[in-house]
Amino acid sequence: MSANSKQIGGRHYAGSGGIQHWDLIYNVLPDVFHGYFLGCASKYVGRSRKKHGREDLEKGLHFVEKYRELLDGPPPKTFQSMAELLDYINQYAKDNLLTPTEMRITLMLLSRDPADRRQVLDIVIKELQTLLAGGGVHG
């Protein structure tokens, strides 16, 4: 069973058949995906006794299983053009029902080498604060 075919906690990816966040990171930021998977797995293991117990351990295991699949599988996608990369990111946004604001934030966070990373992060912080202030989140 592939890691994409199961869901730990919630139903937000179940049955979507679309691009999941970890596949987005693997394909769009192939130079940093190792840190992403190791960081997420260790986060869930480290918080398990304080937060969600078994579910967090299962999520940590899930990240390790997906990471192993990626290491043993085909290499990340090679995008031949910026348009092709944006099509992939747009498909992720569609598959995951991102709002225009969420899409804008995602694009900024995925930018490889912005001229001024601090300026980009300042914009992202303002966008997220606006979402929080407006109640534009679930839960």
Key terms:
globular, 0% strand, single chain, 139 residues, mainly alpha, 6 helices
Give a verbal description of the structure.
It is a single chain. This protein has a domain at 3-78. It is mainly α. The model has no long low-confidence stretch (mean pLDDT 87). It has 6 helices and no strands. The protein is globular, with a radius of gyration of 16 Å. Helix 2 (33-47) packs antiparallel against helix 3 and helix 5 (100-110) packs antiparallel against helix 6.
Q: Which spans have pLDDT < 50 for at least 5 consecutive residues?
A: none
Q: What is the first-to-last residue Cα distance? A: 31 Å
Label the overall shape: globular
The H-and-E topology, N to C, reads as HHHHHH
Return the average pLDDT rounded to an integer. 87
What does the main sheet amount to?
Answer: none
